[in-house]
Amino acid sequence: MKFTNREKDQAILQFRKEWEKFSPPKEIDERIFELYCEDISGNEIIATIAQEFDTKDCYANRCLYYATHMKTERKENLARHMYLDCTSCTESCIPERFRES
């Protein structure tokens, strides 16, 4: 089955809308904010979250991008058509205790 470019573009837009509904688990969101207040760099925050919550870097990155305190920056990125590429992140990347049953 072949898809037209228009169908592919529509699928990507739908995918991005679905991602915008994501919010990190509360304890991860709070920990990210603590690290942010300590003036820790984004890469260090991702590494710390990955280690402390036993998750993969891709999920930690997604949690950082969608963290509560990043809302304004995320809106600015969306206005510039800059999106987080989460396509490599799957359910197996999410720590088991945060997975929906």
Describe the structure.
This protein has five helices and no strands. It is mostly helical and 101 residues long. Helix 3 crosses helix 4.
Summarize the topology.
Elements: H1 5-19, H2 26-37, H3 42-52, H4 57-65, H5 71-79
Helix pairs in contact: 3-4
Keywords:
single chain, 101 residues, mainly alpha
Low-pLDDT segments = none
Mean pLDDT across the residues is 85
Order of helices and strands: HHHHH
Q: Note the main sheet.
A: none
Shape: globular
Number of strands: 0
- Radius of gyration, in angstroms, nearest whole number: 15 Å
Give the terminus-to-terminus CA distance: 33 Å
Q: Helix tally?
A: 5
Into which percent range does the helicity of residues fall? Answer: 55-70%
Task: Describe the structure in brief.
The protein is mainly alpha-helical and 101 residues long. 55% of the residues lie in helices and 0% in strands.
